[in-house]
Amino acid sequence: MTDAAFDVVVIGAGHNGLACASYLARGGRKVLVLEAADRPGGLAATREFAAGFRVSAAAHLLTMLDAGVARDLGLEGHGLEFAARNLKTVALADNGERVVFEDGAIGGVSAKDQAAFAEFRRQNRRFAKVLAGFCSRPSPRLVDRRKSDTLALARLAWDVRSLGRADMRELLRVGAINIYDVAQEKFESALLKAAVSMDAVLGSHMGPRSPNTVYSYLHRHMNDDAGAAGPAVVKGGMGALGEAFAAAAEAAGAEVRYGSRAVRIDLSEPSSNEACRAAGVTLADGTRIETGLVVSNADLKTTFRMVGPLNLDAGFVRRVHSFRARGVTAKLHLALDGLPEFHGGDAGDAGARLLLASSMDDIESAFDHAKYGRFSPVPVMEISIPTVYDASLAPDGKQVLSALVQYAPYDLKEGWDAGRETFKAICLQRLEAVAPGIGESVRASELLTPPDLEAEFGVRGGHWHHGEIALDQALFTRPVPGANRYATPVRGLYLCGASSHPGGGILGLAGRNAARAVLAGEDSG
Model confidence over 438-460: pLDDT tens digits? Predict the structure, then answer.
């Protein structure tokens, strides 16, 4: 069966795919969005994991959403509500020590560290603002530049120079190094250093000593000065955010079809003067949708698997294959009889963004195990208990705990069928150290490993960001040369997902930028 009624087909109803569809539809294109699941949102999904208990299945806190995208699409008018915004962050140690970050201030550390953190925050917010400006538009070409590329490079240079001599030198000094050395240089408190490091490594196959973790820290904080609501709890779970994006796309005129899994990107026969180009999409049920424009919100490797390596240049296939996207982050869900009490904390801690890592060395040690295909016996976690603010996610009086757990390698040596229950028990033991008695309150649990994330959400390698946020896979080169401006070597095929510039996190910028590239008729040059 053939369907040829659309100008553009978008593969995947994740937030970037839906943002792209919205902008394309508003630009006058007739757009169809294909989604394999029965709901929108991709990794931003809400689902039941035990009877009566619902949870944000992967991403669980909204931290980076671009305010311009949210405003353009009218997400709050399409149902997006916040149960809580600008949560405080509490770093917890096993001995009851805690460091609290709230409204730009910090507690639980010395006066010297308070002053040092204030300066660190001031400086890094300025650096992140420069990065945000660069990420809000397609990266300029470095070869065969056009006038627009020269202007974009000049703008970037001006933004960096406008930092002033001292801050510019500091950015050039630390921009490509590791967060361990920077935190070690600036702070005394081991717990403060660990909390800063967590923001640099969450979701990534990196430890605090890994190169580029200063860059990944800045990436996470790029929208702090641009109206981002985070850390925020979305009412109804993160799936409600996906539903708001879908409603915005449909209001703009796009059609979204669920239960429609794309399995092949169809190509035309190459002619003597033109390489092959996109000609449509074939679904798992055999339906073929004809179109001359395809935009993929799938990750890089999945997208070009649908194209087929024989249709691509060997050098490009090699770059795609070498793109690093092996997940090491698991997701733990607990159904609890009541609210846990945290050792050394206060009543407000349960509703905070909680970080469980006592020192940078603990984080690095946990990462060391993952390098060799083992999970850590002392994992580090980012914890949220969304039911503190949104009681609709659990039965009356019950609670849901959601935790991102580092490090759980995709390629576990003994395999996850053998290792799942052991690692889950280790995670519960780790929680017991800071929340005594929590184990007795657990009524149901679920652990999603990177292979589980791959299977459920279609993300190759189960990587949180569709690929490492590192300088060799970012800025001018994300994801790979030849596909770093949303267009690809296949004419009429574009990327709009987290594999593309500016990368992972619920931003919406990749979708918006890709739509602009399509509407402008950009090619992969």
Answer: 999 999 999 999 999 999 999 99
